[in-house]
Amino acid sequence: MAIFLNENSKVIVQGMTGSEGTKHTKRMLKSGTNIVGGVNPRKAGTEADIDGTLVPVFGSVAEAMEKTGADTSVIFVPPKFAKDAVIEAIDAEIGLAVVITEGIPVHDSAYFWAHAVAKGNKTRIIGPNCPGVISPGKSNAGIIPADITGPGKIGLVSKSGTLTYQLMYELRDIGFSSAVGIGGDPVIGTTHIDALAAFQEDPETELIVMIGEIGGDAEERAAAYIKENVTKPVVGYVAGFTAPEGKTMGHAGAIVSGSAGTAQAKKEALEAAGVKVGKTPSETAALARAIVEG
């Protein structure tokens, strides 16, 4: 099993013909993702040659869905055009929109998130500013390297792309059902809680690894959710233990004020919910390994 994405997912790429879109479409195809089309209104009706694979280019998400049965879109559209691209995906009622783009203004993200809600939440948004989602051996929608791990029994949800890769690599011998990079912006579509709920329901996920970071209260809310709803073991890591108070660190969402949002406060909330929390990514991987190997 997997969450959000599986071997039957039909993927289109908005912005496929741009440099980033082309580069990562090559990588997704190489990893076995079923990419059925790209979207670029100016190149509609043509085919893009992606390393010898001819991929049709459509004028809109709706047309791509109609012609191919696509259910997932990966969005590599530059920040100033990203809002319109996401809204187009939502209006077409595609099931999953993975927004890779970094630097989207927060009010744009808030706008398209609200638009998705107003449309009845028919489109799950992952991101923005995220590495995407991978179900190893099945499908890969985004920029997560497909060769650093294999299929297995761990579910991973993370705010940080780099830490997603590190944990996947350190636990590669155990493998992953799915890994979801939710992004570190203040407004994101899919939250820790959404992924935790999906992993709890997935019969092949035996252990959940959750990576958070300083700023906001998402991890505290996730801890409360875990305490009430998650019966599977959860291992956590919170990035930013050494961050100075009041500074924005890295991701737009990572700003700390007072004790709210600190790594220590998040660690304590998670531990109170029964989550084992590592002080480093490698210690977190060791905690996960110890649980799996029993």
Fold topology:
Blueprint: E1 11-14, H1 19-30, E2 35-39, E3 47-50, E4 53-58, H2 61-68, E5 72-75, H3 79-91, E6 96-99, H4 106-118, E7 124-126, E8 132-135, E9 139-142, E10 151-158, H5 161-170, E11 176-181, H6 192-201, E12 207-213, H7 218-229, E13 234-239, H8 263-272, E14 276-278, H9 281-293
Parallel strand pairs: 1-2, 1-5, 2-4, 5-6, 6-7, 10-11, 10-12, 12-13, 13-14
Antiparallel strand pairs: 3-4, 8-9, 8-11
Helix pairs in contact: 3-4, 5-9, 6-7, 7-8
Notable features of this structure?
2 domains; Rossmann fold; 9 helices; alpha/beta; 294 residues; tricarboxylic acid cycle; Succinate--CoA ligase [ADP-forming] subunit alpha; NAD(P)-bd_dom_sf; ligase; Succinyl-CoA_synth-like
Describe the 3D structure:
It catalyses: GTP + succinate + CoA = succinyl-CoA + GDP + phosphate; succinate + ATP + CoA = succinyl-CoA + ADP + phosphate. The chain contains nine helices and 14 strands. With 294 residues, it is α/β, with parallel strands linked by helices. It has two domains: 116 residues, NAD(P)-binding Rossmann-like Domain (Rossmann fold, 3-Layer(aba) Sandwich), CATH 3.40.50; 146 residues, Rossmann fold (3-Layer(aba) Sandwich). Helix 8 links the parallel strand 13 and strand 14. Helix 3 runs parallel beside helix 4. The longest helix is centred in the N-terminal third of the chain and has 13 residues. The protein is globular.
